[in-house]
Amino acid sequence: MARALGGDARAFRDLVGAHHATAYAVVRAILGARRFDDVDDVMQLVYLKAYQGLASFRGDAKFSTWLYQIARREALDVVSRKRVDSTPIDEIEIAARADASPDAVTDERDTREWMERAMGELDESYRTAIELRYMAEKSYEEIAELMRLPVGTVKTYVHRGKLELKRILSRPAWRERRGAVS
Amino acid sequence: MNRFENMNCERIETMLPAFVERDLAGEDAAVVSMHLETCASCREALAVFVSLETALVARRDEVPALDGYLPAIAVARERRLWIRGIRLVTSVPGVAIVLVMWATFLVSHYSNRIESNAAVKTSLERLTAFSKRGLDAMVAAAGGDAWTLTAVYGALAIGVIVSAGALTMRLVRD
Predict the structure, then answer these.
(1) Residue A21 has what pLDDT?
(2) Contact residues for B163 (Cβ-Cβ < 8 A; gap 6+)
(3) A141: Cβ–Cβ under 8 A, 6 or more apart, which residues?
(4) Is there a single domain that holds both residue B56 and residue B78?
(5) One domain for residues B58 and B95
(6) Which is nearest to B51 in space by CA: B23, B28, B20?
C-alpha cells in the first residue's frame, strides 16, 4: 500500500489485482448487455480514479469495498449520463446475429450470448449479486459486505435471480431461437 | 395434478437454486429430495437449474486480464511526474526569492546592531554587499520605502507559490 501510495505502478497493480474480478463484475452488472461496449472504458476509468484517489483511501474500510464503491459509482455515472437505449433486447440480438456467420458462432459463445442477454433482463441488484457470486467467485458473506446487505438478503437476490433467469430462458421466443441456433 | 401438488411444486422450485448450491438446511434438502423422486416436472426444473449453474460458473472465464486496463495508469503516472517537476521548478525559486528578500531586509535593517561582532560583521558584509545593490535598486523603484517593497514583493512571491500549488493540485486530481 505504501509503495502504491508513492506512485509505484507495479505495487498498484499488485494491490488491485486481487480485486480485479470484483470490480469487473460490478461494472458488468451495472452496465448490463446494452452497454457492454462501455465496460472497457469504465474499467480504465475505475483504475485511473483508484490510482489518483489512493491517498484518500482510509484504512477504516477494506480496500475491496473501496474499489467496489469506485467501480459502482463510475458505472452508474455512465448509465446516468448516456441516453437510455430503448431498443428491445431481442432486436439488438437479431441485429447482431444478422451479421454473424452461423459457422463462426460456436456453442460456447452462443451460450454466453444468451446468458448475457438473459442477465440483462434481471434487476440490477439481482444481477450484481449473481455476477459477484459467479464472475468474481465471492462468498455470500463477502458479497454482503460489499453490497452492505444482510447475508440472507444476498442469498435471496441470487436465488430469485436464478428463478428469474429460468423464467426468461423458458419463454417460447427464446426457446425457439435457441433451438434454431443449436 | 391437484391444487396442493401444484403449490407444492411452486414451493419446491423456489428452493431448487439453494438445493443445487447445497445451501439448504438438512430438513429442507430432504423434503426437496423426496419430492424430486416422485415429480418429473420438478426434476426437469432441477436440470434447468443445474445447466444454469454451469453456465454461470463459466462466467468467471469472461474476466479479462487486468493489464489491459492499466495503460491509463502509466499515462497518469508520467503526468504526475511532470507535474511534480513543474511544482519543484516553480516552488524552489519562489521560496528562494522570499528568503533572499527577507534576509536582505533584515540585514539592512539590523546591521547597525550587530556591527560589534567582527565575524558576523564580515559575513554579513559579504552578503550585504551582494544583496544591497539589488535591494537599493528595488527600493529606488519602490520610491525609497523598504517596507513597502518587502510587503509588495513578499505578497507577490507568496501569491505565486500558493497559485502554483493550487493549480498543481487541481491538475493532479483531474
Answers:
(1) 95
(2) none
(3) A151
(4) no
(5) no
(6) B20
Per-residue pLDDT of chain A in tens (182 residues, 90 and over written 9): 667 666 677 788 888 899 999 999 999 999 987 788 889 999 999 998 898 888 778 766 788 999 999 999 999 998 888 655 545 455 445 444 444 444 444 566 677 778 888 898 999 999 999 999 999 999 999 999 999 999 999 999 999 999 999 998 887 766 665 555 44
Interface test with B, best of A54, A67, A115, A170 (most B CBs within 10 A): A115
DSSP-assigned states of every residue in A16-63: HHTTHHHHHHHHHHHHTTTTGGGHHHHHHHHHHHHHHTGGG--TTS-H
Give first-to-last CA distance, chain A, whole Å: 49
Q: Which of B48, B67, B73 sits opposite A12 (nearest CB)?
A: B73
Domain that holds residue B46: 3-62
Q: Which domains does chain A have, with CATH numbers?
A: 2-81 (1.10.1740.10), 89-181 (1.10.10.10)
On whether the CB atoms of residues B164 and B94 are closer than 8 A, the answer is yes
Say whether both B51 and B75 belong to one domain: no
Does residue B32 sit in the same domain as residue B103?
no
B155 lies in the same domain as B82: yes
| CA A58, A60, A64, A66 torsion-angle sign | negative
**Residues on chain A touching B23 (C-beta within 8 angstroms):** 155
pLDDT score of B16: 94
B79 and B142 assigned to the same domain: yes
Do both B36 and B95 map to the same domain? no
CB contact under 8 A, B73 and A134: no
| Distance from C-alpha of B129 to C-alpha of B99, rounded to nearest angstrom | 17
How many structural domains comprise chain B?
2
Instruction: Judge: B63–A135 Cβ closer than 8 Å, yes or no.
Output: yes
Q: Is the pTM of this model over 0.90?
A: no
Asked whether residue B82 falls in the same domain as residue B149, the answer is yes
Q: What is the pLDDT of residues B58-109, one digit of tens each?
A: 989 889 988 888 876 666 666 666 776 776 666 676 777 778 878 777 776 7
